[in-house]
Design brief:
Rossmann fold, 6-stranded parallel sheet, about 400 residues, alpha/beta
């Protein structure tokens, strides 16, 4: 991997793709600056070497139209404060005005371009738009946006072909290294914890993991498809009826490969999808009509935690229940604490990947108690599914 660590940026202008797709609140303020902070080491390396940086990113889903709420102008003050210096901004990302601004940059300067996705050509991976980005006047292309590395967009993929000197930033390199450590050099036992709503979203992931892990723990709404496939009754719980045969096949495959596939023995069930619903505990395969499973129960927590605490490598993608509601957060919280304990007390390497798992780790204030929290949910998933990411391919 060619990374910025091996390069001296003195007198170089760098076009750098970052992931500043951060949440913006109603007052147009950044409500979580994690992704901005994650890019700082790479930006500072270039500046400390004596180079200058042109930063480009997307924000939200403007669908090719200019939207004030999604202007990167809204993150400028946070970026300047965190970087400890003034950052320039221009309300465009290509064209003569931008070229002039880049030409006027001195060593140590930072310029932030407007939201790339205000241009429909960005998501199309358009070659003319990518060439316009490459023609801004920069010497080096750096990709440090792991969160969009799985997209063949102009700024993450197409633009790289127009640069002779291109490389990964620190964050991108760290993400790839940690994923490869888990995928190719796991210490055993290796446990994958998968949650979320649908089996269909995780088919490829489960198939790939069956050849790599010792245990797969299944939680969240997807667990009830497995229970129904086993002949259980699941009441009004979430289910994909067209995936019952697939769930059966996955259970058979895991048994044939000697992989333990654990589904929750019990659930916290509710008579309504609401924090104020009536709740009770039920066996996950004996849920009455009118009731739905919204969290794992204590038996499941105990069984899952036991496996996690014996593991030396842990990959977690997806919550155990509707943890956003306080009434149904206990299962996800308990698993988060088990992963943290395995990491802190038993020396396990834990990788948290995927938006909801990351949100859970943050909610329970355990970010510093696990080994690595990925900044890219979709990108991390595709890596684990065995796909080569466009953003990685373009640099290689």
């Amino acid at each position: 991997m060619k990374t910025i660590a091996d390069f001296n940026f003195r007198d170089k202008k760098v076009l750098m793709r970052v992931d500043f797709n951060v949440p913006i609140n109603a007052n147009l303020q950044v409500s979580d600056d994690t992704r901005i902070r994650a890019a700082l080491p790479s930006i500072k390396k270039i500046l400390n070497d004596g180079g200058s940086v042109v930063l480009m990113s997307h924000l939200g889903r403007p669908k090719g139209k200019v939207q004030g709420k999604l202007s990167l102008r809204n993150i400028l003050s946070d970026l300047s404060r965190l970087l400890g210096q003034s950052v320039g901004f221009i309300y465009d990302c290509v064209g003569e005005e931008v070229q002039k601004s880049v030409a006027n940059m001195k060593n140590g300067d930072v310029l932030l371009l407007e939201n790339l996705r205000f241009q429909p050509a960005e998501k199309k991976g358009d070659e003319i738009f990518a060439k316009a980005l490459a023609d801004l006047g920069c010497d080096v292309y750096v990709n440090d946006a792991f969160g969009t590395a799985h997209r063949p967009h102009a700024s993450t993929y197409t633009v790289a072909q127009f640069f002779d000197t291109k490389m990964f930033g620190y964050l991108m390199a760290k993400e790839i290294k940690n994923a490869q450590k888990v995928l190719h050099e796991p210490q055993r036992p290796f446990t994958a914890i998968l949650g979320g709503a649908k089996v269909s979203d995780k088919i490829l992931l489960i198939e790939t993991l069956l050849d790599k892990v010792d245990n797969i723990i299944i939680g969240g709404g997807m667990a009830y498809t497995f229970h129904k496939a086993n002949g259980g009754t699941i009441g009004n719980s979430l289910v994909e009826n067209d995936k019952l045969e697939l769930a059966k096949t996955l259970l058979e495959k895991s048994a044939a490969k000697g992989v333990r596939l654990l589904i929750p023995a019990d659930s916290i069930v509710a008579d309504n999808f609401s924090n104020d619903a009536n709740t009770k505990v039920a066996n996950s395969d004996e849920i009455e009509s009118g009731w739905m499973g919204l969290d794992i129960g204590q038996k499941a927590i105990t069984a899952f935690s036991e496996v996690i605490l014996q593991s030396k490598t842990i990959f977690w993608n997806g919550p155990m229940g509707v943890f956003e509601m306080e009434s149904f957060e206990k299962g996800t919280k308990a698993i988060a604490y088990a992963v943290a304990e395995a990491s802190q007390k038993h020396g396990a390497f834990s990788l948290i990947g995927g938006g909801d798992s990351v949100a859970a780790i943050k909610k329970f204030d355990l970010t510093d108690n696990v080994s690595y929290v990925s900044t890219g949910g979709g990108a991390m998933l595709e890596l684990f599914e065995g796909k080569e990411l466009y953003g990685i391919q373009a640099i290689k």
